[in-house]
Amino acid sequence: MRRQFVRLHRWFGVATALFLFVAGLTGAIIAWDHELDAALNPSFYQARTAGPVLSSLELANRVEAADPRLQVTYLPLAVEPGQTLQMMVLPHTDPATKQPYPLGFNQIAVDPVTGGIQGRREWGAVSLARLNLIPFIYKLHYTLQLPFTGGIDIGTWLMGIVGIVWLFDSVIALCLSFPSLKAWRKSFAFRLKRGGYALTFDLHRSGGVWIWGLLMIVALTSISMNLPSQVVRPIVSRLSTLTPDPINNPEILRAPQPGDQALSRERIVELAGQAGRAMHLAAPPGGLYYAEFLHTYGVGFYTPGNDHGDIGLGNPWLYWDAATGKQLAAQIPGKGSAGDIFMQVQFPLHSGRILGLGGRILISAVGIAVAVLSITGLLIWLKKLNARRRSAQNANLARDASGAAARS
């Protein structure tokens, strides 16, 4: 059995090493995406004008009026002092061509005092330019920047499958790390003085053992991040009831009717304020998302700058039918079934934000460790591959020499 486990670990490791190397390094970086992006692009983050700010709703209306080609799809409902208001936008359909208008950007930074647009960018574009670098790395982390093909998000699926293989391989690796009870201490040791291959081997084996629990958490949550509705939710739903939501359960949505018109953002924010007070939510409505393809509005409840959730299980989100204003679903951190809470904890665990600043530092360290484990695993495989080839060559030479001697 051990021989089969060694073979599985070898091929699982080789197949996923480069993917995990990229995911580990990019994950260590994007734990600080907001801070790094702001440091690299102060003109995109810092408002040029001081003074009383306009409301976010008014700013969104001005942006759409100034450029009828676009619609605002994500809108922070408050802005941090001295900062720009960063909106996500999508193009309307051009009546002449029946195709979306070619905007060339999907995110804008707006001066909240004047309403002027300070910057535009295509979030996630394949670009190493300063303005695009951090969004590029963020998207690289979970899609490898691979495109949609035939309506399938190839990159997201691929990284999700890598996560599944990694999860199983982590269990196999732990079994292989403890070949016997008598030698268990060796599995935690690092032969620093030996250096060379011995240290490389220990970095891979012992390094993995020391942080094995964290690696399992990151592997499991990576599957949940990439394949929630395809893999994780169906499995969890067999063990615990899951509360439906419009994103993962579109069957709860009302079929659009002829003449349907989306309610105004102002009306949805009013409904959100009423619902938040009725549910005794501590934070005000903090961000509004409009999913036209789902005919749904979503409102997150958080204070300015806390859209990711600084600590705990994240932020509450409520959803409304865009045409009727009927509330469709509510996701309240810490509430719901065991399955609901399991799903709620996935992003906070994966990002480290469940523990606040300390968790983000920890997840950055784990990301670097994943990269080191991937590289050391490849080095060990290459060394053993070369050793097997030399052994085979020596055996062939010995066989040839023996045959020649027998013939002479």
UniProtKB/TrEMBL annotation:
Entry annotated with the keyword Chloroplast: no
InterPro entries found in the cross-reference section: PepSY-ass_TM
Membrane-traversing stretches: 12-32, 154-178, 209-227, 361-382
Keyword Transmembrane annotated: yes
A Pfam family: PepSY_TM
Keywords associated with the record: Membrane, Transmembrane, Transmembrane helix
Full protein name: Uncharacterized iron-regulated membrane protein
Annotated organism of origin: Paraburkholderia susongensis
